[in-house]
Amino acid sequence: MNYQQILDTIATEYLSMQSTGKVASYIPELSKIDPQKFGMHLYCINSGHYSFGDNNERFSIQSISKVFALTRAMLLMNDTELFARVDVEPSGDPFNSLVQLEYENGIPRNPFINAGALVISDILISQLDNPKEDFLSFIHSLTGTTSININPKVFASEKAYSHRNAALLNLMKAFGNITNDIETVLDFYIFQCSIEMSCKELSTAFMIYANGGKRLSDEHQIVPPQKVKRINAIMQTCGFYDEAGEFSFRVGLPGKSGVGGGIVAIHPNQYTVTVWSPPLNPKGNSELGMYALERLTTLTGFSIF
Ligand code: DON
Known about the structure:
- This protein is of the alpha+beta class.
- The protein has helices spanning about 5-15, 65-75, 80-85, 100-105, 115-125, 130-145, 150-160, 165-175, 180-195, 200-205, 205-210, 225-240, 245-250, 285-300, and strands spanning about 40-45, 50-55, 60, 195, 255, 260-265, 270-275.
- The protein has 2 domains: about 5-60 and about 200-300, Beta-lactamase (3-Layer(aba) Sandwich), CATH 3.40.710; about 65-195, Beta-lactamase (3-Layer(aba) Sandwich), CATH 3.40.710.
- Helix content is about 45%, strand content about 10%.
- The strands form 2 sheets. A 5-stranded antiparallel β-sheet has the order 2-1-7-6-5, sandwiched between helices.
- The chain binds 6-diazenyl-5-OXO-L-norleucine.
- 6-diazenyl-5-OXO-L-norleucine (DON) binds next to loops.
């Protein structure tokens, strides 16, 4: 497969395209990003790296961090206990919605909506002495790059505007599904969301999900294959909130988006791919990113279906 030629075609089609989407502004610091930024990076298990555009520039990974957090929690706790506190069903609601939580007794639909990710944060805080250091070290071990860190301005900006996430936490605590202090959980969750990585670094980190749980650089087994199967299944069904069906329909790969404009997708046993374009569609997913990934699986002729 000539991936570079395919990526060049996508670059020609979309690099100069004006997105009709809007850069996230509910976290004020994110609204300062140049909407024209656009990068794509594909990491093939057999043949290495392909890219174009701003693929080496770091951006706010936001909800993409929820995949790393779920993985870390699944390595620390058994699945029966963990999935008693957070379900694995698509929500069909926006990522920050409160409505289902009330009538489902404080058990979030899945670990990728905000409510579910906050439960995962609570679990990591209970299980780890230094959750922030552990979280960064986990990403460093997946990428081999120790300079990956948070953007303190994005962290402070989200902290100042986190009333919805605080509401989710309070509601879940009332139902007995949050163990630690609201402020402690919020602080850790915002920390993980404010991490910055490039398309290349995300494609490298996500390689464990395409490579049966093994890090490609040394074939070290980081996550057992059965857990990778489950994480990929949750990405497929819940990775794009109330647009998970649309992403599956158009792209046909498991993946995860973030409001920083990044999307990572994986083709098991083939490749990982990351695309970054900040303007978001109304569902909070990168508009051009979705187009670019749709073109990728169309031009290669392969998806998981
Ligand atoms: O909690 C929030 O709202 C953000 N830190 C993350 C949301 C997000 O990335 C949703 N993804 N598309």
